[in-house]
Amino acid sequence: MDERKFAEALARASAWVARYFERTRDFPVLSRVRPGEVAAAIAPAMPEEGEDFDALLDDFERIVVPGITHWNHPRFFAYFSITGSEPAVLAELLAAALNVNGMLWRTSPAATEVEEVALRWLRDALGLPQSFFGVVYDTASISGLHALAAARESLGLDVRNQGTAGRDLPRLRVYCTDQTHSHIEKDAILLGIGRENVVKVSIDDAFRMDAAALDRAIAEDRVRGFLPMAVAATVGTTSTTSIDPVPAIASVCRAHRVWLHVDAAYAGPAAIVPELRWLLDGAAAADSLVVNPHKWMFVPVDLSVLYTPHEALLRRAFSLIPAYLETPESEVRNYMDYGVQLGRRFRGLKLWFVLRAYGRRGIVKILRTHVAWTQELARWIREAGDFEIMAPHPLSVVCFRHLPAGLAQNAAALDEHNQRVTEEINRNGFAFLSTTRLSERVAIRFAIGNARTTQADVRETWDLLLGTARRLANG
Ligand code: PLP
Asked: Which one, 103, 212, 243, 268, has the greatest CB density within 10 A?
């Protein structure tokens, strides 16, 4: 592509993006394609000769866009709703153009230093201690993996060199609850800890870890000769956004000398709101903490941040410098030393752009609004009379179900009914909701988190849901 053609193509692509943001709400939120439909529309083999960008963009519009579930849609209320914000989209374009690999400081000093500064800004905005060092990974699942690897390194077992197989090692134990995100178990699989050694501590009726039960579980494991390694507490669990009692958990961890990992992937960003600062109470005692700006801080997927006061330990777990990567600078940070991957995208740029373009006040205003609308939605649900709220809803998610009189005594039929209601809304394309299970029963999850959502979006979706639920119950 020569320079003139590239400039024209860029203008077309930019115009497409700008227009997309103007008309995102015109698309069905959940893609309507059937399995295999997208692949079938694409040529079975790559072309022999290169094609023009016009052909590519046309096929993008014709084949790809119908196969998109629009996470940017203001009525995307499933999972955790997110935002690909304008400043971050622009940062992604610029970063793609630069195409730097920030593995070493010298392979792009700006990639390292922008990331360092943006992570310090974010840390300070969330009220985390200045002793916390931050590093960007792609996702919370990978941040958690590195945190648990650092926890294992802290035990001094020299797993780094000797591995775990064929050695006389005690079982390493990780503690969480049945509300903890599944990545903790996956990380345990990858680290050779094994799922059986991920202990599910009991929870209270608000889906929060019982710190006294944690204390007992660790003490019992010690008696059995196991080695308690880490506790994963969650601030904002995936199903209900429950908040584990981090201060009490931190005391247990301190008493037993166990690593405290805090998963604040979703709710952590909300600590920027002054009246929600309490969310991270106790987090200063964490050995590692994850926040995902790609969840509730308008940064497009992917960007997860791991903070830890144990920078040297994390580096010790992973640093390995072959001759071809040696550099003369000794006073700099080479981010390749803090994880498995060598190559690193310039992710820090989009975080820096978002923090600057919105400013602290801009972010606070939107997150505060999301929480207020969620509380309003919960009020509508309660006032409807034939619905049940199934969990506390301190933040921007409500879990609830329709309880029509005729089905109230039949648990399986109720589950099926609520699943049908959700599927009907999703098929309609107007909005997208997801479900979870709480105490084994199906709950509809309504998650607000997109910066383009309006209160009318929330109201209209609730009205549709209410009407759909009653119609299906009566039909
Ligand atoms: N932690 C929590 C609390 C989550 O809700 C999720 C995903 O929803 C994750 C971790 C995993 O996030 P990621 O997709 O960044 O790995």
From this structure: 268
pLDDT at residue 408 is higher than 90: no
Q: Is the CB of 179 under 6 A from ligand 1?
A: no
* Sign of torsion over alpha carbons 82, 88, 89, 95: negative
Same domain, 231 and 209: yes
Ligand 1 geometric centre to CA of 92 (Å): 22
Q: Does residue 304 have its Cβ closer than 6 Å to ligand 1?
A: yes
CA gyration radius for the chain?
A: 24
Which residue has its alpha carbon closest to ligand 1 atom 4?
A: 238
* Last residue in a domain, options 321, 345, 369: 345
Q: Do residues 455 and 368 both lie within one domain?
A: yes
What is the per-residue pLDDT across 328-359, written as a single tens digit (0 to 9) for each? Answer: 998 999 999 999 999 999 999 999 999 999 99
Please answer whether residues 283 and 235 qualify as being in contact, where contact means their C-beta atoms are separated by less than 8 angstroms. Answer: yes
Q: Do 298 and 374 share a structural domain? A: no
Q: Is 143 near ligand 1, meaning CB less than 6 Å away? A: no
Range(s) of the domain holding residue 62 = 3-68
Give the CATH number, domain containing residue 109.
3.40.640.10
Is the beta carbon of 81 within 6 A of some atom in ligand 1?
no
pLDDT digits (tens, 9 = 90+) for 152-164: 999 999 999 999 9
189-209 pLDDT, tens digit each: 999 999 999 999 999 999 999
What is the number of structural domains in the chain?
A: 3
For residue 406, what pLDDT is reported? 87
Q: 296 CB under 6 A from ligand 1? A: no
Same domain, 339 and 382: no
* CATH at residue 61: 1.20.1340.10
Question: Per the omega criterion (within 30 degrees of 0), is the bond before 302 cis?
Answer: yes
Q: Is residue 80 within 6 Å of ligand 1 at its C-beta?
A: yes
| Ligand 1 mean position, distance from CA 78 (Å) | 14
Compute, in angstroms, the gap from residue 140 CA to the centroid of ligand 1: 5
Report yes or no on 326 lying in a domain: yes
Residue 328 domain-assigned (yes or no): yes
Looking at the structure, tell me whether residues 34 and 171 fall in a common domain.
no
3-state secondary structure of 175: strand
Using the mean position of ligand 1's atoms as its centre, give its distance from the Cα of residue 132 in Å.
21
Residues 184, 185, 188, 190, CA torsion sign: negative
Q: What is the DSSP string of 3-31?
A: HHHHHHHHHHHHHHHHHHHHHGGGS-SS-
